[in-house]
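Before the break, one more example. Copy the sequence into your notebook; we will annotate it together after we see the structure.
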Amino acid sequence: MQKQTTLFSFFSRTPKSATSSPSSSTSKSQTNGSSTPPGGDGDDNVSMSGETPSKSLVSTPVSRTGGEKRRRTSGGQSAELGGSRKKVKNEDSPSKEYSEGTLVWAKLEGYPWWPAMIRGETHGGAYSRKSAVEFHVQFFDDPPSRAWIRKGDLKIYRGSQDADIPPARSDRAWLSACKIADDALALKTEKRLEKHWIEFTPSEEENNGNCSAESEEEEEPKTETERMETPKSRSSRREVKKHKRVLTIASSSEDEESEVVSKSSKKLNTSNLKKPRKEEDEDDYSPTKNGSLEEESESSESLVESEKMSEVESGTDHDEDDTPKKTPKRSAPKAKQKLSATPNRGSPVVSKVDMKGRLQQFNIKDTPNSSLSSPKPESNKGIEESDALWEHMRLTWAQDGKRMDANRRKQTHPDYDPRTLYVPPEYFNSKSPAMRQWWEMKSKHFDTILFFKVGKFYEFYHWDACTAVQELSITFMKGDYAHSGFPEISFSRFANTLMEKGYKVARIEQTETPAMLEKRVKTSKPAKHEKVIKREICQIATKGVRYASFQDDSSSSPFTPESAYLYAIVEKSSSSTAEGSSFGVCFIDTTIGTFHIGEFEDDRHASRLRTLFSHFTPVQILHERGKLSSCLQQLLQNMSSVRKDPLLPDTEFWGAKKTLKFLAEEYFRDKEAGGAPQWPPEFQAVLSKSDGLGLTPDEDWELGVRSLGAVVWYLKDCLLDHDLLSQKKFEVYKPADISSNATVPSLPERLKRSKYMILDGVTLRNLEILEGPLSLLSTLDKCGTNFGKRLLRHWVCLPLAIPADICDRQDAIEELMCIRERRDKVVPLLKSLPDLERLLTKTHYLGSAYRSKNHPDGRAIFFNEINYSKNKINDLITVLKGFKTCVKIIKEFKNAKDEDEIKSSLITRVIEGFPSLDKLLTYFDNAFDHQAASKEGKIKPRPGADEQFDNARQTVAEIQSEADEYLKDISRQLKARAVYFGSDKKRFQIEVPDYVKVSKEFEMSSGRKGFKRYYNAKTKGFLASIMEAETEREEILRDITRRIFAQFDKDRETWSRAVECIATLDVLISLAIYSESQDLMCRPTLSYSSLPFLNIVEGRHPCVASDSYIPNDTKMGVEIEDETPKGNFVILTGPNMGGKSTLMRQVGLLTILSQLGCHVPAEKCELSVVDRVFTRLGANDNIGEGESTFFVEMSETSAILKHATPSSLLLIDELGRGTATYDGTAIAYAVAKELSERKCRSFFSTHYHTLVEALQDMPLIQMSHMACMVENENEDDPTQESITFLYKMISGPCPKSYGFNAARLAGINDDVIRVAYKKAKELESVVNGIRSFTAICTGIQEKKFSMKDFAALKI
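Here is what the structure looks like once it is written out:
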């Protein structure tokens, strides 16, 4: 039978078992040694019996010609060059082709073909033996080594570019050896021997005379039985022929190694062994059918380059249930790696490998610290073509700087598309059919890592393989080109790992079986390159385009609770804001499926866009290519962790009309309404009212619809558009600072405001609201569900600004605090819930008829289909159990309401808004056996579960019943007992006794002793009808899982309302738990007021729960005991490290917490509603956007001056410190004066004491400072002072900042501090003198006193 080229031909053949005869084992070893493929580095084959074939090295060199330093070895005495070369006749007649001094290629197992020179063991010694079957060669190596090589493993050396020799250019030692050999080739034989002769220490065998021809000829040949029974004799004989190398196999621990040493090599001194090269070889994986490692093909072709892959692609006889076990591995060629102390180039091969071993040979690491970690590919930058590591590095047209896109545009072309690659036709046509598939897909998706399916395995090639090995800790396979892979079952884990690291991945599946391929070839007679398994891209995914796949393990989710948004942004210069722009945005979390569309005008700093990014964190942004303003470009460049994808205008970043036309035709057309589009209610806000069909956007929403078009195109390119758009979930986004319809109509116009407090990106960052070790979000987050966590983040980003709504939340939280026993019952139930919000999206696409019929996934062949089916069913069961738990939670709250424990209007609305799920859950409980379906991976519907299946089953039953009635009629007619015989296609044969006479309409079909069987037209009709009905039933049954999911998805709105209600309760419970977390908590009082105020008594930081924390009072715009009004503007001074910034952050967080509806850590908290919190805290530059520290300060201050209102809360820390003292003081003075006149509630901290003096007499400005206690105050030496910070804010300015104390605490030398203090005194004296002189001159000019008074001062 002719051998087929399959996947197995890529791997090494399994050596014979340990019980094989020595002679056969030796022969096998020699055969393998000569057939190592190019690029494979010819790894050794090591059987598990302990025999380790290796390079037969005799000794290491002692000295070189030219007087090199003598080297000692443990193999014997050193020898010196010199003396006459004694002519000794060779023991055998040497070959005419090979003589002493001849340059050859020599092949040893585990090594590539290596340049060498034939020479005697000693000067004039024998260079051949065994009738010229073996020759003694000296390898050109560093250090040089020697060995006896069989004639069959020798080839004449004609130069390093010999086409007949597989190159090993990945091995720099090999390249160096070739260079030496090329130089030697130009020399005459005598000169060559003289120049390159190395004197070696005699080996142990030579000293014992084991190498003599006489000893070999005198030794009587032994039978196989004698050799097996005489280990000593066998070992001795083998030492003459071939030494065994020591192989060290890395264990799972970096500190432990296990050595596999052949018994015959125990006496061999390891110092005589050839050192391993600077690369290691680990076993590649071997997905074989029969459990053995097949022989590696000499061409070293990839498994996908085989034209016949039927055995692998059919996936038969693979036991996927086995657990992988550890086997030794071989790494790929690696350019720069330290030499190991113990040789480890061997390639261990297991003789009998079960599925566990095969899977483990994929070299999939559980931890990155495994000692079997694979090498990372080197960059090809700066590598000469002849030294390139992999094939793709040697392709000139594929190198960076020389590439062209699919339209043959060079990289320097302005329209160059880096997502595509031009592949020359001559190269493309030279590849095998399967590899042509890969190159065709790669040329269209050059920026994507292709998971190329081959049988049960996903493969990586070329660039993708290098990336996969580096990022996934898998290893290269053998071959001249980069190649790696892993089993199908691991796709989800590896794909998610790459996406998390920012890569774009594509999953390519086989969409036909070998049987389908064979049938297609027979029927359609395709071209040669089409005679290959069909493959299609089924999924393209990035960090921003992901969804819960059926390939994910149903027991764990690959997603974090936080949403990850895909954005599309389009910008247009705004006519109304000369310095700003208008932005259209669309963003979506693809795991949930809601499209958010927005359009707004922004300032020159893109403040609203930055705030949007803070609220809804992007992980990927689409934008128009070449149409970014400098401001937006700098903003995007500064977001280093976000993937940015430029799209071509119009063709990819669609226009508004093109977008609406596509949506109307593909998704929103109502066939029953004559084809007119039926737009979702939320989406109609962006459509023009003048266009009845909705194919024109509103003039205020054109940019927003264009950004939607970009998202739709990208999702379409990723094959995910239908799954998301068919949900029809849209929301209109408006920035929080734009007044919406949600205002209070009863208020006067001047008090109308937005529904929410505005927290911009700067404030969220400066107050550490969302991120940081002590962020407000992490402090409040006690939620038990992932969808509850997402809702809590939304609430924190948008605190309420209407007192009535705030009061509703406060009432709900207080009641939850009062029913702690019931709450404690609910909390474990909440924690047990899965992410129902995301699972609803997953069930939607799993139930999609479009996906099963028109999506490539519907045609894909999965070899773990049963596991995936189990995952799908388990997901549905998990969702159903989750909603049953939701019903229990609501029931617990209903009982509390019935017992008058709950009166809150908010909780009441949640309870009443929760839909009735009992009927739906009962239906799915009765639809199928959940336990059996989960175990078998198949749903067998019960009666009433699926109407179509019930009809099909009823049809089969009716046909069978009719046939049974007809059989009774036949029995009566024939007056004999008649029965049906047969099964499947031979059913409905009427069996009657042979004595019964039948009419001519009966056609005899078969019989048995005493009986005959007949067909007639009626029974043939029954057979045809029932087979047709059964076929229809089976087709419905095959699709029943999808149909059950589709049935569940019909009530998606009902399920979604239930999730929203549970999420609200989860967040309220979380806030209630926080409200009990500290001893002293109070319910804030909020109100509207034309005179804004803030009164906090004994307030503490909400994120620091410590008994040692010092509370503080904060009063703005309120009356104190003497009925003197407090100013809204607080100038805060105090020593460095005295707690000014902490107090300011504390006030800001308490204000936000109050408007969340939560209790706050204070004795009393009263305030009028804050519409926005501004912060100017810390000193940070923005290098990415070229902004200095002072410029950042001024930008943030500009936003405050532009948007602050009397209802705002301002927190400004040390404004002006980024520039010269006088400039900074002047700017701080002007800003403070402006804001105080606006009557904004403000904290303004400063160390400018001149500023304090200038502002202290202004009305409604109160002076405060952070108190401290100074001991050993010394006006001459500040290093002797001891300062205790009291962290208490008291009235009045602070006389000093005590900066020298901070310097001393930071460790600055006392002498330096003294010098600085002395200089400070001098500067202070000069300034005071100038002030005094200015005051005197002013007084004289204004005639407040005379020169006589000046003279009395005695200055």
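Residues 613 and 761 are 8 Å apart (CA to CA). The first helix runs from residue 22 to 33. Try to locate both features in your own notes.
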